[in-house]
Write a structure and sequence with these properties.
Blueprint (H helix, E strand, L loop, with lengths): L18 H8 L13 H7 L27 H28 L5 H8 L4 H7 L5 H20 L14 E7 L5 E6 L1 H19 L6 H4 L1 H25 L13 H7 L6 E2 L3 E2 H7 L2 H20 L4 H19 L1 H4 L3 H4 L5 H14 L2 H8 L6 H31 L12 E7 L5 E7 L3 H4 L3 H15 L10 H25 L1 H9 L10
Antiparallel strand pairs: 1-2, 3-4, 5-6
Helix pairs in contact: 3-9, 3-16, 6-9, 9-16, 11-16, 12-13, 12-16, 12-17, 13-18, 13-20, 18-20, 20-21, 21-22
Length: about 500
């Protein structure tokens, strides 16, 4: 998902990146038994070195090369505390701006400066928590838990090319390979089938139900986000799923935000990281947009082409995420991040409320684009998606075949690299420099940003609020480029310099 909602913090001690993490860093947008604390013998038996699951071939996992910082500098600590304190108010600010100021992000600041409003008056005008919203959200989350836990995937049996059902994840730092029930696409299909069945036949609730309870739902999602984050924090100390997959610092706030456990689980199948990364936030994404479209129809008697574009382009991204959910098991969210407030609260609150700002804006300011403008936005979104998807496909093809494939009709070129792991062993790897990976080192991010810009441009140029998404994504992905390449340079040394000489640009050929 865009897992992509947090900030990456400075670390005073960075472990070398394993091959699996390196590939996951480059993957872009995207997220059977559990070994418990009482099963150290089994865990030890399964702890073996594994082959790479990324760009490089023939690499092995080094148990010391994983996770986040052991030590935290003062800059990181200050950043963590500020984010914990301010992030919920950033979300509230955008929701409040639409609810009270017609989506203006400057007018509330002007009113505060001039004395026309106070923080307390703005807070008091905001809709408060309601038990009706709590009931809606409790039913929603419970329904997604049922779909995730108790309905095994069958879609992979009749959808060609789709990989679902029980799948192995990447090897954890402790050397374990968790199994996952990949059924997100099935959950999305069932959820939306019921949504449309209700809208056009059963009429159990109004399709505008999400918009009508938007701010009260914000309080409900915050309650769940903080409850989940606190639970896994306490769980890591008292009953971790696997103690060897935990990482502690001496800082309470950093542990709470970035997480301690790598893959916290309850029982055999409920994996906190996979569930909250994909459900309930991303499944809800398209439902939220549909509710906004229904509200636009209710208020103005029509759904504008800009609202249709936002619904279609963002639904394409959501479907891509669930179609590639098994591949998502090998990305940075699963292979590298621990599960804490950063993922728990972020997936419950940040993602559904800030990634849907375009649809929310269009309820308050319906925009009917000209045919030419609508076609241009659609083309930009589709080209961006194509670049993003094909870039990742080329990398995956190269990885799976060890380079014995064709990219753009010819045998791929690559750079042979070597690195030394912490155990003193030398390993070899291949870095792809053909196809899209020869145009720029992170062209998948470029495609991602093109799609993000299309969402925003669908809203016209009347307000800044719908453009928050592209501003945020640009900062996030540029910083991720720099962070990833710093780690890769530390790992590969001179070979990484050879690679950057062969592919000199990060995102935009000729510019950056």
């Amino acid at each position: 998902m865009k897992r992509r909602y947090g900030v990456y913090l400075a670390e005073t001690r960075r472990p070398k990146l394993s091959s699996s993490c390196y590939k996951s860093c480059l993957s872009g947008r995207y997220k059977t038994g559990t070994m418990t604390a009482t099963e150290p013998t089994v865990a030890t038996q399964r702890r073996t070195k594994a082959s790479s699951n990324g760009l490089g071939q023939g690499e092995k996992v080094d148990a010391g090369q994983w996770g986040r910082a052991w030590e935290v500098d003062w800059f990181s600590l200050i950043s963590v505390v500020l984010l914990l304190c301010l992030a919920p108010f950033i979300v509230f600010f955008f929701v409040m701006a639409c609810d009270q100021y017609e989506c203006s992000v400057t007018q509330p600041l002007i009113d505060l400066y001039s004395g026309k409003a106070t923080l307390l008056s703005i807070w008091n005008r905001a809709p408060s928590f309601t038990w009706a919203a709590a009931k809606i959200y409790a039913i929603w989350v419970s329904f997604q838990v049922v779909l995730y836990m108790f309905i095994p995937d069958v879609t992979h049996k009749f959808l060609p090319g789709y990989v679902g059902g029980v799948q192995d994840g990447a090897r954890t730092p402790a050397g374990l390979i968790n199994q996952y029930q990949i059924n997100g696409l099935q959950a999305w299909i069932i959820t939306h089938a019921l949504w449309f069945a209700n809208a056009y036949h059963f009429h159990w609730f109004s399709p505008t139900i999400i918009f009508d309870n938007w701010t009260p739902l914000l309080w409900c999602t915050n309650i769940l986000g903080y409850a989940v984050s606190t639970f896994v924090f306490v769980k890591a100390y008292l009953f971790p799923t696997n103690p060897e997959d935990c990482k502690f610092t001496q800082n309470f706030f950093y542990n709470y935000m970035m997480g301690i456990e790598f893959n916290p689980r309850i029982g055999k199948w409920f994996d906190f990281k996979l569930f909250f990364n994909g459900r309930p936030g991303i499944v809800a994404w398209t439902l939220i947009n549909l509710s906004f479209a229904a509200k636009q129809q209710e208020l103005y008697g029509q759904v504008t082409n800009s609202m249709i574009l936002v619904n279609v382009l963002q639904a394409l991204y959501v479907l891509d995420f669930f179609w590639n959910e098994a591949w998502y098991l090998k990305t940075i969210d699963i292979c590298h991040d621990h599960f804490g407030w950063y993922l728990g609260w972020g997936d419950c609150v940040w993602l559904p409320f800030l990634y849907t700002l375009q649809g929310l804006y269009l309820v308050y300011h319906p925009v009917q684009l000209s045919t030419a403008n609508a076609a241009g936005v659609l083309l930009l979104g589709l080209v961006g998606y194509y670049v993003f998807r094909m870039t990742n496909h080329q990398k995956d093809l190269f990885r799976r075949t060890g380079g014995n494939c064709k990219i753009w009709g010819r045998k791929p070129a690559y750079i042979e690299c070597a690195y030394t792991s912490t155990d003193g062993q030398t390993h070899h790897s291949k870095l792809l420099i053909s196809g899209f990976w020869g145009v720029a080192r992170h062209l998948n991010y470029t495609g991602d940003l093109m799609g993000s810009l299309a969402y925003c441009m669908a809203c016209g140029a009347g307000h800044l609020l719908p453009y928050f998404y592209i501003i945020y994504m640009t900062i996030l992905l540029v910083h991720r480029c720099i962070r990833d390449e710093h780690r890769c340079h530390s790992k590969y040394g001179k070979d990484w310099t050879r690679y950057t000489n062969a592919v000199p640009y990060r995102l935009l050929p000729g510019l950056f």
